[in-house]
Amino acid sequence: MSDLRFDNKVVVITGAGRGLGKSYALFYGSVGAKVLVNDNGCDLDGKNTNNKFADEVVSTIKSKGGIAVADYNSVLEGDKIIAHAIKEFGRLDVLINNAGILRDKILAKMTDEDWNIVVKTHLYGTFSVCKAAWSIMRDQGFGRIVNTSSGSGLYGTLGQTNYAAAKAGIVGLTLTLAKEGERRNILCNVLVPVGASRMTETIMPPDVLTGIDPSNLTPILAVLTHESNKEYNGGIYECSGGFFSKVRWQRSEGVSLDLPVKISEVQKHWAKINDFSGKNEYPTGNADLFNKVQENLERLEQQAAQKPKL
Questions:
Q1: Per the domain annotation, does 75 fall within a domain?
Q2: Closest Cα partner for 214 from 71, 15, 8?
Q3: Where in the numbering of this chain does the Ketoreductase domain appear (predicted)?
Q4: pLDDT, tens digit, for every residue of 51-80?
Q5: DSSP assignments along 24-74, one per residue
Q6: Number of domains in the chain
Q7: For position 243, what pLDDT does the model report?
Q8: Do 287 and 239 belong together in one domain?
């Protein structure tokens, strides 16, 4: 890990006062980066604020010879966070969106406030900071962005409709940014981490928490955000406790039906529609679906042409 240095690179990390973000900040501070430690120190539910958490991380980085400044702005004001980094360091190379809160409730008991604050913090907050950083990275022809999703966003979790919706939205946001930024050397990826934090300590036993120390997540961040990374873009990476993997969408072989489609035909082929044991595909964009549509239309045209004319 020490082979990848970030000397004089400027790294902005949101939610860097505790948990995963803190480990990220300490890592980048130890390998030569100038780190903006963003954290307003709010409680897990988004209430109250406390500057001490960001200050303590900055103090630790400086005590080890690193360079860091604290930032207490909300991620809902991403322009202020990025402006602070530019004012302090004059450029921006790496952005890691990690900040988040929880308001877990089943849908029947969830209030509009519970929904809005979680979705706004995670999804809009990620957008807000990315938007502020985008023009800077675009103009300098370099940028590395890692946005944080969750297994809840990929697979759904009981009692987390707000959190899961926001985290799923971050995946779509990031995959789109990866396409928009690639030609400007702005590479964007999604990290789906599980590490010991105040979010996980309420649901996992101490021995498990020890095994998922967030410092073990920093190597994959180093690989994705280093300037030597020229190709890893638009990926979704799950990682925890020393395990690393890439997640991708999978489409079943499916079936192409005659038009107009009849309900009975869908019912008749339902097993094949849901069957992943055949020739599966791994789509990466809308064009993959449109190709299937075009193939089916061509098939129907050929069928029509072969029918005898009366």
A1: yes
A2: 15
A3: 9-202
A4: 999 999 999 999 999 999 999 999 999 999
A5: HHHHHHHTT-EEEEE-----TTS----THHHHHHHHHHHHTT-EEEEE---
A6: 2
A7: 85
A8: no
Looking at the fold, whether 239 and 162 belong to one and the same domain comes out as yes
Entry pTM: 0.92
Q: Does residue 1 lie in a domain region?
A: no
* List 24, 28, 72, 163, catalytic entry: 163
Find the CATH number of the domain harbouring 71.
Answer: 3.40.50.720
DSSP-assigned beta bridge partners for residue 97: 147
Q: How far is CA 15 from the centre of its chain?
A: 14
Residue 117: CB atoms within 10 Å: 17
Note whether residue 18 is domain-resident. Answer: yes
In this structure, the answer to whether residues 285 and 193 fall within a common structural domain is no
The answer to whether 241 and 216 are in contact (CB under 8 A) is yes
Q: Classify residue 270: in a domain, yes or no.
A: yes
Confidence of residue 282 (pLDDT cuts 50, 70, 90): very high
Q: Is 282 a catalytic residue?
A: no
CA distance 234 to 213: 26
Domain that holds residue 83: 10-247
Query: What is the tens place of the pLDDT at every residue in 234-276?
Result: 999 999 888 899 999 999 999 999 999 999 999 999 999 999 9
